[in-house]
């Protein structure tokens, strides 16, 4: 019960119901599509990158509470960050959600992304939390291919 | 080829059939159902994905490895003869179980998927040409879509799709309209794994035969729920997987009418499918061995044979009666949840219930139920076109077998209330 509450924290549920930066941005110059064949989750990511800085970012798609809230929180965190910072955060985030349950999580620099710490108790849901991030990295590389978690 | 058939008769009816249907006694036959999951009793509601195995099946497999293991059809020694007898005995059982004419019509494959691929590759490549049409339905499992798509891509044939109505039933008038001179095959699911719909398969076969079109039936979900008689159905091909009918994974059956099999080229080349090989010429083996290249899943086939014995011991009438009551109870109980909608409301339905809950993604439903020890399937169930038809990204699916109980259904409903509370 406790680990479920940990996974589905109120903030996560709020982002799920009212996602931030949901929709398409007209000035997007980097896009990518992410797909999780396991559950059919799909995300379209739009980025407006200028001088190596993410000026604007948004997403569309359908997915579970974890993938949707992860995408939503990610967009709020990445707006205004440089590409290098975004990639750095991706690595830290990935490390957090795949870290060993019970160990001390490294939350440094993660800010509000720390709410996804509970995901590591649910190995089957790591892909849900990571989908938006993998898609973001692909978009930055401007790979206009479909990113799959499989 | 020498094939010695083991005695098929069981000595008297097994205990579980004597006093009618007692679900608790049946559950005792399935060791896995005694398990606790995350501290709660396991509630296994995912039998459409794969069914659990009774002790007798597990024992048949371990007994084979402990006392009979040897390669079949080759050795002249004692163990090889035992193994060959057990393997061919299983084939004989299957033949009787589905009422085929001859063991020549029973080809062991890896499962329903491989059975369909075999037909697409062998029968399909030989008989289907550019401009021809293959008819499938909107409720097919991916394994009865993709092999035909691949064949179409290769040959230039076209795939035509029978639509379904809002209850998830085939629209037979549309099916009739699809059939024409170009139709070369109908490939259709007997019972849908995502909607539970039981298709009027005999009628579908008859309609196709009126136009002289052969029919492949995907019986993967039919076998665990209903008696299949291939002679009565008169279908040309029938495939099923052992693991969905309480047998082990990795083995399944392709039934095909002998006259069709006889004219089909081999699917794979290798050992056991040949009579003689020189570098100039290879003589292919007789039916059904021509389609069984390489060492097969011997233990799997034996396990499947035992699973069929077990099902026969319980009896399909008992299975159907119990499952009908479970389905009625589950449909009623789930309907009391206001935000829940059942997808697949066909009049003729197996105990498979797909549903969606407003504002809650099935994946989250599955994770939360799992913490209550309840196993359901969430996702598209390898039927993405069905999801598209009903405009949902995914569903949650509870699929029941004869070992499930009303109490388990009630636990599911309680679990769903917990899901809704947690997610709001
Ligand atoms: C209707 C149907 N057809 C075919 C298959 C494929 O069976 P297998 O994966 O055992 O080959 C399944 C399995 O889910 C099924 O439900």
What descriptors fit this protein?
heterodimer; A: 4-stranded mixed beta sheet; 5 helices; B: 424 residues; alpha/beta; globular
Explain what the structure shows.
The complex is a heterodimer of chains A (about 150) and B (about 425). With about 150 residues, chain A is an alpha+beta fold. Helices cover about 40% and strands about 20% of the residues of chain A. Chain A has five helices and four strands; from the N terminus they run H-H-E-E-E-H-H-H-E. Chain A has helices at about 1-5, 10-15, 65-80, 85-95, 125-140; strands at about 30-35, 40-50, 55-60, 145-150. In chain A, helix 3 (about 65-80) packs parallel to helix 5 (about 125-140). Chain A is globular, with a radius of gyration of 14 Å. Chain A starts with a helix and ends with a strand. With about 425 residues, chain B is α/β, with parallel strands linked by helices. Helix content of chain B is about 40%, strand content about 15%. The longest helix of chain B is centred in the first third of the chain and has 20 residues, at about 80-95. Chain B is globular, with a radius of gyration of 22 Å. The model of chain B is unreliable at about 1-20 (pLDDT under 50). The interface of A and B includes residues 1, 3, 13, 40 and 42 of A. The complex binds pyridoxal-5'-phosphate.
């Amino acid at each position: 019960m406790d680990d479920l509450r940990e996974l589905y924290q109120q903030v996560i549920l709020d982002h799920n119901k009212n996602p931030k930066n949901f929709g398409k941005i007209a000035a997007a110059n980097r896009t990518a599509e992410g797909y999780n064949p396991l559950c059919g989750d799909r995300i379209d990511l739009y980025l407006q990158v200028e001088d190596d800085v993410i000026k604007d970012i948004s997403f569309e798609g359908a997915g579970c509470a974890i993938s949707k809230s992860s995408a939503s929180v990610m967009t709020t965190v990445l707006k205004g960050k440089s590409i290098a910072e975004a990639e750095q955060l991706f690595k830290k985030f990935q490390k957090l959600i795949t870290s060993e349950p019970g160990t001390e999580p490294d939350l440094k620099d993660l800010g509000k992304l720390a709410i996804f710490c509970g995901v590591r108790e649910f190995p089957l849901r790591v892909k849900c939390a990571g989908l938006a991030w993998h898609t973001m990295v692909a978009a930055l590389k401007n790979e206009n291919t479909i990113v799959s978690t499989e | 080829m020498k094939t010695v058939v083991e005695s098929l008769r069981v000595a008297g009816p097994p205990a579980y059939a004597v006093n009618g249907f007692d679900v608790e006694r049946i559950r005792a036959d399935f060791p896995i159902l005694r398990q606790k999951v995350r501290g709660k009793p396991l509630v296994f509601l995912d039998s459409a994905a794969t069914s659990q195995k009774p002790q007798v099946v597990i024992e048949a497999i371990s007994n084979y490895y402990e006392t009979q293991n040897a390669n079949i059809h080759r050795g002249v020694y004692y163990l090889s003869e035992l193994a060959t007898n057990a393997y061919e005995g299983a084939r004989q059982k299957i033949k009787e179980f589905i009422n085929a004419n001859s063991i020549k019509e029973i080809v062991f494959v890896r499962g329903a998927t491989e059975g369909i691929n075999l037909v697409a590759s062998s029968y399909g490549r030989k008989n289907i040409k550019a401009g021809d049409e293959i008819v499938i339905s909107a409720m097919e499992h991916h394994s009865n879509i993709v092999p035909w798509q691949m064949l179409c891509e290769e040959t230039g044939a076209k795939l035509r799709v029978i639509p379904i109505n809002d209850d998830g039933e085939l629209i037979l008038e549309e099916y009739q309209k699809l059939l024409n001179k170009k139709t070369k095959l109908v490939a259709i699911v007997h019972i849908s794994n995502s909607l539970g719909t039981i298709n009027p398969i005999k009628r579908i076969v008859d309609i196709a035969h009126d136009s002289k079109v052969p029919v492949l039936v995907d019986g993967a979900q039919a076998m665990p729920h209903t008696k299949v008689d291939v002679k009565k159905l008169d279908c040309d091909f029938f495939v099923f997987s052992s693991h969905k009918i309480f047998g082990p994974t990795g083995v399944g059956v392709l039934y095909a009418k002998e006259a069709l099999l006889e004219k089909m080229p081999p699917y794979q080349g290798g050992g056991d499918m040949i009579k003689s090989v020189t570098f100039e010429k290879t003589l292919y083996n007789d039916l059904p061995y021509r389609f069984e290249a390489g060492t097969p899943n011997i233990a799997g086939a034996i396990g499947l044979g035992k699973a069929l014995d077990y099902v026969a011991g319980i009896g399909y009438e008992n299975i159907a009666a119990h499952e009908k009551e479970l389905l009625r109870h589950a449909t009623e109980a789930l309907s009391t949840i206001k935000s829940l909608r059942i997808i697949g409301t066909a009049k003729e339905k197996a105990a498979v219930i797909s549903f969606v809950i407003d504002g809650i993604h099935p994946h989250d439903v599955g994770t939360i139920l799992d913490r209550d020890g309840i196993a359901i399937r969430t996702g598209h169930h390898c039927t993405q076109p069905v999801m598209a038809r009903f405009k949902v990204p995914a569903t949650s699916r509870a699929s029941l077998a004869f070992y499930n109980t009303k109490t388990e259904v009630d636990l599911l409903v309680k679990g769903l209330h917990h899901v809704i509370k947690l997610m709001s």
